[in-house]
Structure formats: C-alpha cells, structure tokens
C-alpha cells in the first residue's frame, strides 16, 4: 500500500475541493426536493389556464340558443386559443360540445381532474407527464371561474404541456446550478478565510517542522487575537513545537556531552583500577601509618571505580522491549537476593512473604534486575546503619489486589533521607548514601514502566518500602 503524500494541497485541491463539492451537492439535493412541488404547481397552473379559456368559450355558448348553430369562424379561434381539439360544457343535465372542423375525437384520453387539488396527486401526475407524457390525449376537467357550477372539459394533446414543463425544468436546472455555484463559491471564500486557510497553514507548519524540527524559524506564529478553536490549536501547536525544539536541542547537547563523559569515564576507570592495584600493594607494607591510611584509600578508590562503572552501565542501557512470561516470583526473588549479597549475610535476614505459586507475567530478566537493585540498596542501607537493633531484615512480599498485582520490597534500615525522597528515581540525584549515583532506582523505574507497571515509595513505621504495581492485563496470579 502506497503511503499518503505529505505534500500540502493547494487552495483548489484536498479539503477545499471536498468542501466545494459537498456544498454544491447539498444545494442541488435541496433544489431537487423543492423541484417536485414546484413542477407540480407549474403543471396545475398551466392546466388551469386552459380551463379558463374553456370558461370563456362556455360564456359564448350561453349567448346562443343552440351551440350547434355557431359558425366555425367563432368556434375554431376559441378552440385554437386553448390549444384544444374540443370543449365539453356540462350544466343542469345538459351537455354541449364544440370541436374543431374536421377533427376526429379520440377514443381514449388521460384525465386531469383539477377539482382534486391533493398535493401528492398533483406531484405524481407532474412526474408522470414528464416521463410518460407526450403522445397522449388529455381530458382536463374542472370548474373555471364565471360559469357557476357547470363543469368544463377541455380535450387536447399532452405534448404542448410536456414541452412547456421540460422548458421550465431546464430553466430551473440552470438556475439551480447557478445558485449552487454562487453559494458554494461564497461559502468557500468565507471558509477559506476562516477555516481552510488556517488549517492549511497548520498543516504546512506541521509538515515542515517534521522535516526539520531543529529549525526554530519553522515554529508557527499564531494569531494571538483569535479566540476560537483554530486560535487555541495554533497556540498549542506553537507551544508544542517550541518544547520539541528545546528538547531536541538539549537532547543533542546531552548526547554529545554523554559521549565525552563516557570516554573520560572509561579512561578514568582504567586509571583508578591501576591506582587500586598500587594501593593493594601499599596495604601490604608494615608501616603503621600506611596500615592506618591504606584501608581508607582502598575504600575511596572502590567508591570511585564503582561510580565510574555505574555511569558506564547506565549509559549502555538498551531499550529492548520486554518479553513477558509467567515468572515464579519467590524463586526469582531468592536468586536476586543471593546476587545482591543478602543470602548468607551475617547480620541481615532475607524474608519471602508470598506463596511459592505466586506468579507474575513479566520479563524475568527485567524483574531480576529490579529486585537486585532494590535488594542492594536495602543491604547497603542496613550495613551503614549504626543503630542497635535486635534484628535486621529485608522482606519480599506480594498481594493480589482487585485491579492490580502488588509487590513490596521492605527493610527495617535507617530509611531514606529527605533529599533522597525529594529526588527519588532521578538519576544522579536520588542516592540515599554518600558517594552514590542514584542510578539504581532510575533503572528500576524504567524497567517497571517498560513492563506496564509503576513504582512508588510506600509508608512504613521504620525503614523503607518500595511498592511495585502491575495492572491486571499485564499480570496474573496463577494457582498451580
């Protein structure tokens, strides 16, 4: 399938053409709806005119005792003026007939009774005349003015009526097209100025900005005086483009800076590793001052190397999508605790407070890294705590809530300091210990969100508790 073009249509293509065609079509449909009763009224008026002429002839009949005695010099002009072959006059049980000279009366005729003015019947007869008339004879029946209650019948060909109706229809069609065209043009000009033009301008700005989002001159300049939806959209687009421009420029700067830092950090780590090897050799000397200062030097170098390594690890984080499977949380949690140095720790007890069949649908590698980071943070916090306590523990627990699956990693260590709480999950800002990078929690948040969950800091009387929630559509509790 060919993708749609990104070329912005001109003023007479695209949405503009659709608008003109839609307006014209609607007007023509309205004209068609109006045309049927209009042509029916035209036909009725035409037939009424023929009846009125017939009424004039009837009044002439009344002036003579015997219609048969009227000369053709009088009757033929009357009939010809009505376009009739014959006129029948019925009154008080008497019927009179006058015909053109040497005319044979038709045996069949289509009756148009003008005494019945039902609109539906008039409309149906008009449509019938347009499509089926032309070769038939008509018998027009009615009571024209000036003849009392007498009934007049005019017998004539239907062809003249149909010809006049076709001419009238053609004129209506031309007028309708003219009205539709002028109306569509006027509405198009107004719409082009108020709607289509601004939309085309918005489209052009979006397409151009998409091609080169780092060009600030392509940011749209909205009409600040416009308060309708278009004005709001223009200002929102301006703000969005400005934010994207700023973000992309900052991202490029950070990428360049990150590359430089990574290179520096790599060389620095190598130098620190060499320094660590030298410090290990110095620590074997018998000098008391060296023995006193060497552990501090080694510890400082270990922290520096750890910092450099964590920065490199964070920079190498890959954005591979998770591959969720059913994971035994208890078993994976024990493996993560062993990796984090909790299993076999002489001061810390690791507790698993969930059943062995507690399962979650998640990427197992991601969950392992999440738990390892949280367990390491808990172990380091407890190791650094100098307060006297009867027991030290780190607990992994979980519950199935109504709409989510909930995991908790808690400890009874010293808790988080205020600065760490304010910048929790922010790289290089959320560390709870001196010399830390805060990258562990930043990585944990990214992994949890990549699997459709969220992580928050829970409330606990002492220590720290992290709460991880996964929605029911991406997690499940399986009982085996």
Automatic annotation (TrEMBL):
Reaction it catalyzes: ATP + protein L-histidine = ADP + protein N-phospho-L-histidine
SUPFAM superfamilies, sorted: ATPase domain of HSP90 chaperone/DNA topoisomerase II/histidine kinase, Homodimeric domain of signal transducing histidine kinase
SMART domains referenced in this protein's UniProt entry, alphabetically: HATPase_c (SM00387)
EC number(s) stated in the UniProt entry for this protein: 2.7.13.3
Transmembrane segments: 20-42, 172-191
Pfam families registered for this protein in UniProt: HATPase_c
GO molecular function: ATP binding; phosphorelay sensor kinase activity
UniProt keywords, alphabetically: ATP-binding, Kinase, Membrane, Nucleotide-binding, Phosphoprotein, Transferase, Transmembrane, Transmembrane helix, Two-component regulatory system
Domain annotation Histidine kinase: ranges: 263-474
Top enzyme class: transferase
Superkingdom of origin: Bacteria
PANTHER family named among the record's database cross-references: PEROXIDE STRESS-ACTIVATED HISTIDINE KINASE MAK3 (PTHR43065:SF10), SENSOR HISTIDINE KINASE (PTHR43065)
Record's protein name: histidine kinase
Species in which this protein is naturally found: Pelagibacterium lentulum
């Amino acid at each position: 399938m060919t993708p749609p073009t990104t070329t912005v249509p001109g003023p007479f293509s695209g949405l503009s053409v659709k608008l003109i065609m839609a307006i014209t079509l609607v007007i023509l449909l309205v004209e068609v709806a109006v045309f049927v009763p209009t042509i029916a009224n035209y036909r009725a008026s035409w037939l009424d005119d023929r009846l009125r002429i017939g009424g004039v002839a009837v009044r002439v009949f009344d002036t003579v005792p015997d219609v048969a005695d009227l000369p053709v010099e009088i009757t033929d002009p009357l009939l010809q003026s009505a376009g009739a072959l014959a006129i029948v006059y019925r009154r008080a049980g008497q019927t009179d007939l006058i015909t053109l000279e040497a005319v044979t009366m038709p045996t069949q005729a289509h009756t148009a009774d003008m005494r019945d003015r039902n609109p539906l019947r008039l409309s149906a007869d008009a449509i019938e005349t347009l499509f089926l008339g032309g070769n038939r004879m008509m018998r027009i029946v009615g009571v024209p003015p000036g003849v009392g209650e007498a009934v007049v019948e005019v017998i004539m060909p239907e062809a003249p009526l149909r010809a006049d109706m076709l001419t009238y229809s053609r004129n209506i069609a031309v007028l309708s097209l003219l009205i539709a065209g002028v109306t569509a043009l006027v509405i198009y000009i107004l719409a082009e100025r108020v709607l289509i033009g601004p939309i085309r301008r918005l489209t052009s700005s979006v397409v151009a900005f998409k091609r080169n989002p780092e060009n600030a001159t392509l940011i749209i300049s909205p009409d600040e005086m416009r308060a309708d939806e278009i004005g709001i959209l223009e200002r929102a687009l301006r703000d969005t483009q400005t934010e994207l421009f700023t973000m992309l420029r900052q991202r490029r700067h950070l990428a360049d800076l990150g590359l430089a830092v990574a290179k520096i950090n790599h060389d620095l780590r190598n130098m620190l590793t060499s320094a660590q090897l030298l410090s290990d050799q110095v620590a074997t000397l018998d000098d008391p001052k060296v023995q006193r200062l060497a552990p501090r030097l080694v510890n400082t170098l270990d922290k520096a190397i750890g910092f450099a390594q964590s920065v490199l690890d964070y920079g190498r984080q890959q954005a591979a999508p998770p591959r969720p499977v059913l994971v035994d949380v208890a078993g994976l949690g024990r493996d993560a605790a062993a990796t984090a140095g909790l299993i076999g720790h002489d001061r810390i007890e690791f507790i698993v407070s969930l059943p062995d069949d507690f399962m979650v649908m998640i990427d197992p590698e991601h969950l392992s890294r999440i738990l390892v980071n949280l367990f390491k943070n808990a172990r380091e916090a407890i190791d650094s705590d100098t307060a006297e306590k009867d027991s030290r523990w780190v607990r992994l627990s979980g519950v199935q809530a109504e709409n989510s699956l909930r995991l908790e990693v808690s400890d009874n260590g010293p808790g988080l300091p205020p600065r760490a709480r304010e910048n929790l999950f922010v790289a290089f800002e959320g560390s709870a210990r001196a010399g830390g990078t805060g990258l562990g929690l930043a990585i944990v948040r990214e992994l949890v969100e990549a699997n459709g969950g969220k992580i928050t800091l829970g409330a606990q009387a002492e220590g720290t508790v992290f709460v991880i929630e996964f929605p029911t559509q991406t997690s499940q509790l399986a009982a085996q």
